[in-house]
Amino acid sequence: MTMSLPIDAEANRLLSEDPLALLIGMTLDQQDKLEKAFNAPFVLAQRLGHAATVPELASFDLDALIVIFAGPPALHRFPKAMAGRVQEVCRVLLDRYDGDAANLWADVDSGAELVKRVSSLPGFGKQKSQIFTALLGKQFGVQPAGWREAAGAYGEEGSFRSVADIVDGPSLDKVREHKRAMKVAAKG
To answer: Domain for residue 110, yes or no?
Structure first.
């Protein structure tokens, strides 16, 4: 499947074809705009001159990586913290998954195991792990037994709660409306 986020077509293609780019986008999807987070792997690839690899980012000089993340424009509103976070995620992938982001979900036996694996990554709490599980299931066909249940409400068919549900402009609008309603309810 090809991602259909409101970002550059080449950025969507990279997310669709490169598991690390997808995981970096999800890593950056916090405290910043969804579009910026998921476009960042493409901008990072442009700055590096090639698509990033796990071993490369895991061993990158952190100060130099921060400079790359800082831009301009910055890849995230907190470039220093997120450069470090991406590097930490890559180090876990190198240590536990042979340096291949796709191994994070390859051959997983159940949705619960997938959420557990994802939540073991730095910066991936329960909600983010469930959203990523839903994204993998809904848009990339990674559907181990019980994946919808493990993804919680984000795995529900026909829901519009997260990036997992964005396939076009109208679905993006529905996700944004859901998020606005959740913020209003939380203030209530």
So the answer is: no
- Tell me, what's the pLDDT at 119? 98
Whether the CB-CB separation of 37 and 6 falls below 8 Å is answered with no
CB 123 within 8 A of CB 30: yes
Distance CA 82, CA 127 (A): 18
Q: Is the dihedral of CA 15, 20, 21, 25 positive or negative?
A: positive
Task: Estimate the share of the chain in helix, then strand, then coil, as percent rounded to the nearest 5.
Answer: 65, 0, 30
pLDDT, one tens digit per residue, over 102-160 is 999 999 999 999 999 999 999 999 999 999 999 999 999 999 999 999 999 999 999 99
What is the residue whose two structure tokens read 């698509």?
51
Clarify whether residues 133 and 99 are in a common domain. Answer: no
Q: Are 44 and 76 a contacting pair, CB within 8 Å?
A: no
Residue numbers of the domain that contains 139: 127-188
Distance CA 143, CA 98 (A): 22
Answer yes or no: do 71 and 132 share one domain.
no
